[in-house]
Amino acid sequence: RVQHNNTVTISFMLLMPFVTYRLAEELNVSGVIAVVILGLAIARFSNKILPEQMKAQSKNIWEIIIFLLNGLIFILIGLEFPYIARSIKHEHILPYTLYALAITMAALLLRFFRVYMQQVNLERAYKKGHPRVTVNSLYDFKNSLIISWSGMRGIVSLAIAIGLPKHLQDGTPFPMRNAIVFISVAVVLFTLVGQGLTLPWLIRRLRG
pLDDT by residue (tens digit) across 21-70? Predict the structure, then answer.
């Protein structure tokens, strides 16, 4: 009876991340990483187990939650970043910024490689006549580049960085916490501002 009750099932799915995070923290492992793994597992198995109506309802609810959490992340950036920036020595700001730029470029390359491999797998499945892969599922190099360039990076890393304790159990400050948060925020800003401002120009160049 519970399995076919959409309200109970979706409510249980919404509670699972909080329970998982708490259990992971009690076991002295990363709660954020545990929740990310849980999300991947839910996305994988829900497509096979849940009926279509429940999947549609769940998707709408999660889209609202994701929208709210993205807004919350920027609120946290506004609250944390000024304090973090003031606590870092001036001679360290440039090296940390360069580290963030290097991480951003590496993330872009990994994103492009992932999109390219997905394109190869889709083309392979289409040639084999896979029923769920149609010609509309395929995309060329230009679209692959646009997909790779769009999207913000570093949100999960920033959540992990902000979630780091300010002090260790013995009362000493957590080593390099401010540097980690600074670099994580810089990566988010690089992808948000840099890619966001250049994406329209890139689309015009590729499609012009």
Answer: 899 988 888 887 888 899 888 888 777 777 778 888 888 888 898 888 87
Establish how many alpha carbons lie within 13 A of residue 136's alpha carbon, considering only the half-sphere containing its beta carbon. 2
Asked whether residue 113 is assigned to any structural domain, the reply reads yes
The model scores a pTM over 0.90: no
Q: Based on the domain organization, do 92 and 193 belong to the same domain? A: yes
Q: What is the pLDDT of residue 3?
A: 55
Contact by Cβ (8 Å): 107, 187:
yes
Q: Distance between CA 164 and CA 178 in Å, rounded?
A: 10
Q: Which of 192, 197, 182 is nearest to 98 (CA)?
A: 182
182 and 130 in a common domain: yes
Residue 42 resides in a domain = yes
Q: Are 154 and 184 in contact (CB under 8 A)?
A: yes
| Final residue before a domain boundary, out of 43, 74, 105 | 74
What is the structure's pLDDT at 19? 93
Cβ contact 107:153 at 8 Å: yes
Task: Give the three-class secondary structure for 27.
Answer: coil
Residue 81 is assigned to a structural domain of this protein? no
85 burial type by CB count under 10 A (0-12 exposed, 13-18 middle, 19+ buried): middle
Domain-located, residue 166: yes
Q: Which residue range forms the structural domain that includes residue 92?
A: 88-208
